[in-house]
Amino acid sequence: MTRLLRYSFFVLLFLVYCHAKAATGNISGRVTNSSGQPLSFASVTLLQSDSTLVKTELTNEKGDYQLTLLSDGNYLLKVVLSGYEQYSSSIIQVAGTAVNMPDIVLALKENQLKEVSVRGQKPFIEVKADKIVVNVENSIVNAGSSVFEALSRSPGVKIDQNDAISLKGKQGVNVMINGKIQPMSNEDLANMLKSMPASSVESIELISNPSAKYDAAGTAGIINIKTKKDKKIGLYGSINASYAQGVYGKGNTGFNINYRNKKFNFYANANLSNRKGFSTLNITRDFYKNGVFASGYDQVDNYIYHFGTYLGGIGMDYNLTSKTIIGFAMNTETNYLGRDAKNYSTVIDSATHQPVSKFFTLNASPNYWHSYTANVNVRHTIDSAGRSLSFDADYAIYPSNGSQNYTTTFYNINADGTVVPSMQPDILIKGNLEGATLIRSLKLDYSHPLKNNANFEAGAKSSFVTADNSISFYQLHNGNYELDPGKTDHFIYNENINAAYVNYTREFKKWGTQLGLRTEQTIANGNDVTIDSAFHKNYVKLFPSLAAQRHINANNDLGLTLSRRIERPNYEQLNPFKYYLDQTSYKTGFPYLNPALSYSIELSHSYKQKIITTLTYSYTSQPLVEVLQPSTTEDKITIQSTKNLINMSFYGVGGSYQFQIKKWWANTTNFNAYYAHYEGDVAGSNLSTGKATFDVYSSNSFLLPKNYSAELSMFYQAPQVYGYMNLKPQSMVSFGLQKNLFDKKVTVKLNITDIFWRGYPVASSIYNNFEEHFIAKRDTRQASLTAIYRFGKRTIQPIQKHDGGAEDEKKRVGGKGNG
After folding, report:
1. Which pTM does this prediction carry?
2. If we measure between CA atoms, which residue out of 162, 497, 179, 180 comes closest to residue 331?
């Protein structure tokens, strides 16, 4: 691997050297007003003669600009500055020499009508009252990249080794596309974003404290990816395929196709993935009684998993009239997870602290879960003033089935260390799981533009969820499998959420404001049929939101946001079924979980729209935290579950810094330092602990000649505390090389992730009379090769599928069998 790194480094240096040799021309000049005064911060854009973006620069305080390291060829120059007419040059020829342009004089716009028709180009990053906007289409670095790569470079965004996305140090962020939450697992969402070209995206909105317009669910904020809207007629599509090789191979292939004419838009997509991987979990568990060591386990869990995903969707928007659009979307997905696990456990004696026995567990667990979703929507523009009304109806069903088969064999360890079979008979258990989650949702939204750059919004939503799951376990006795009532269960959960909101926004010359209020009523009923135990919840919560942004001057902006949010447990976290890992541990849900409620306030500062710093404070009552705890009713048993702690306080400072080191070398560095303090009481163990920590992500992007580009990224997470769990540092170094072929119709990418294999968790959990320490190694070090072929008219952007009003409920379904 060291030799590979060295080779890759020299290849990179060689390509950089070739780039410097091949691109030696430059264009320079000055921009002034009609009085000859220099104009600073004017956007100078260089285009190839076919209008392909090459570079963008801002003029300095003297009005000067310089575009260097240009290959020979013909170019066009455009200059844009708010309040002035746009300038476009004639053809400029570069042939390895310097081109000094005459002064470019921008004329003031004559009236308000022209200001509407001629718009200045947006900066790469904008700080607004309630969000940070990354204008992806204005970034040279993102040219030729995927949406996934563009997202990883965005301020405050971190993507870990499992493709989980966090925002400013907070996990559980909701990812949306065109305002619709994507109800997918981390891996499926990452695959979709990796297949979407960044050129199809207009902007990425980073919303730490969402307004009342959005569902109140999610305490980490929202990332909204807005795709480009293009009214041109024609066909567009792409085919992609990738293969990754770690310890095991992983393949993915898919296509999407879009067709638009004057009356309707149509899309279809399909994706197939087949992945094999492993997880090796080394665990030490020590049980104490009144502070004295009672017994322990040294365990090694080896998981080999085979994961297959088959998904597809179709949708259409039809222009019923010039003001009314109706549409539908249907999607289906089938997931298969085959897991073969081998658990080797050694029992440690309380008196001698020496091994006294062993047991070996084989676990074969094939699981299937499916989804079938449909949405019907209507969009109506009421009048020319921009008043609009929209309606969504959603239906989704998620059936699942699977089995769990366990065989445990016991051994004794003699005083001399030899291992002999035990007289204890083998234990053979098999379990069958069947279930389905049904979601129905109706949503209505109204928007009313007002005078003086103001807008009023209001809406309502109702959703209905039914989750019905049953599990049956059988144990082998005298040659026959007999039902085990202690492990068999049937759980039914019904939930109805009714919501309404109002939201007001207004833009002033130097200020931007947003004020909103959302109310949500939750009615929930749970029934454990097997033990005849039921519960009922009915509560109403208010969720205010406030945002203000002050434009101080051309270089500085300040923003302040405040909101209240809720995190409801997903349906699997509520399900009391037991999923056994071995004889000593199992995973289960807890039906009496309460939702977590959070207040969050954030102050942000932006300098030149490139250096962004934020201060964050949030307080969460009854946070939902995953725990590895000792059982309070069973001897020497460990339970993996989600529990409510008492509260969690979060203090954070974050920064996003973008450096254009050279014209061909850009760096984006995101830094978060934070302190999280947890208070709780689980398994009789009082908790009051916190730890200051930080994480840093740095990505270096290189634009190379002949349509090559490269990226070297580094990530480091310092030690941190998560509830009862203490995690040690993690780090990751990755490298990628990309080549565009055939006029950018084909893109080929080679990536090596987690080169030094340090991106796995090492942690410990400590309770009264119990300690657990583990190392979880996964297949994170991989080399992957990806190819994307785009066909159709190049000027047409893909039409993003329409999701409806039930995305929050869909996201809470989760994937079964991922424990």
Report:
1. 0.74
2. 180
